[in-house]
Amino acid sequence: MERFRDRAEAGKLLAERLKDAHDPVVLALPRGGVAVAEPIARRLDVPLEVLVTRKIGYPPTPELGVGAIAEGGEPVFDHTMLRRLGMTPESVADVVERERHELARRVHAYRGDRPLPPLEGREVIVVDDGLATGGTARAALRAVRAAEPAKVTLAVPVGARETVGSLRQEADEVVVLRTPVDFRAVGQWYEHFDQLSDADVLGLLDKASR
User: Fold this and answer.
1) pTM of the predicted structure, to 2 decimals
2) Domain containing 78: what range?
3) Residue 177 is part of a domain; what is its CATH number?
4) What is the 3-state secondary structure (H, E, C) of the chain?
């Protein structure tokens, strides 16, 4: 299956699938989702905003996610993973608190004192650069859903089939370009998959605002 050249190309391809959206709010999950969402917002001629999420990691191995949290929402745990590790949500309370602080820092870095746009009654498109376990996307969708939008769409270039299937229960629509059988990691489906910095995110948001 052909790879995307980069996140910008993937975003342009996704934008064609989303062009009939009616005056949506586009929310990107930083950092990588912002690079995908910028061409979408430009194509739809709507503002681009970020919805900050953080993974809740297993303390001995933080790369292993046991949940996630999104701004405006409560922690969403992978209870199957917690049971497998012999843990409970209370076991990672300290991790959750640290991630809340980092989430708040990033919200301030990306938006300052500017709040999220009103979502109630609006069509909302949540964008990320790919879905592996889907933990942060799930937390984001639940936080958005709590704001009572008219419709919630999750848009991603690529994702693991099982994850995409499970997230169809969280969103009204999931728009995904590729669900490869041999999915192992999001980055393998991009020729260029550079890690983005906060400065990169701010640059993309500034570009979108112009």
Assistant:
1) 0.95
2) 54-109
3) 3.40.50.2020
4) CCCECCHHHHHHHHHHHHCCCCCCEEEECCCHHHHHHHHHHHHHCCCEEECCEEEEEECCEEEEEEEEEECCCCCEECHHHHHHCCCCHHHHHHHHHHHHHHHHHHHHHHHCCCCCCCCCCCEEEEECCCECCCHHHHHHHHHHHCCCCCEEEEEEEEECHHHHHHHCCCCCEEEEEECCCCCCCHHHHECCCCCCCHHHHHHHHHHHHC
